[in-house]
Amino acid sequence: MEKIFFNTYKVAPRLPIIRIASFFNLKQDIGWKEYLKIDGAEVEQILKYASAEKAVYLYKYGCISFLNFNRDEITVFLDYLETLFVELDYQLISHYNESHALILSSEGEVYLWEGADHKFQDHQQMADIAAAVLAKSTELSSIETELSEVLDDADYFINQLKQGYLKANTHKVISTIAKNIRFKYRSLESVRLLDRPSEFNRIFKARQMYDALSGYYELDERYEIIFNQMEVLDSITGEYFSFRSKRSEKRLLIFEIVLLSLFPILHILSK
Which residue ranges make up each domain of the chain? Predict the structure, then answer.
């Protein structure tokens, strides 16, 4: 049996795929797509040798899927991207990466993963689908990790307030809330991009392959967990503001009581 290999890396928060396409003089309209596919002559231009079975998929949300690339070839491509003034984050690359292999039988049938019970007929979008699902899974790993860290920070801060430790400096309070808000909007944008691409909806077989691979990587379940965690994040933020609001109201009430208590004294002293 033959294997088709994929390696995916989170390389940056976002990738300017339209600008990258202009470097390669790609004339296709990519404005409506979430990714840019580079193959054929463009890959050979970078690697300097024939590369008919290789391709690269670059996604707006900062992931890159490599088809049939070895590690040295991946390094060469990333180095080339940097010559195009595309800023890469090597810390992201080292932390968020996944690999996958499709299995091709001698009869031309495809097993979507090692040990899969169900097989599909070979399909022209097969590589595109696998690259997309692997990129989505890698992006989700990044979101899951960052969201967990933000939740831990926010939850710890709220617990401190509940226990009466009110000496946290204002800068940390503002920083925590701002991080929560920025993270929410950035994550929502990424999750929208993680919806099933429209180009895989048009053909029933493509939808089947996409849904099977999505199930293998548990994308739907992970989406739901992310949204639930974001609701928790909202509740933590709301609880903090509610707490601060009540404290402000209490201080104002005390101030009013003090002022009212001073009025009789001032009236006596004025006589």
Answer: 2-123, 129-245
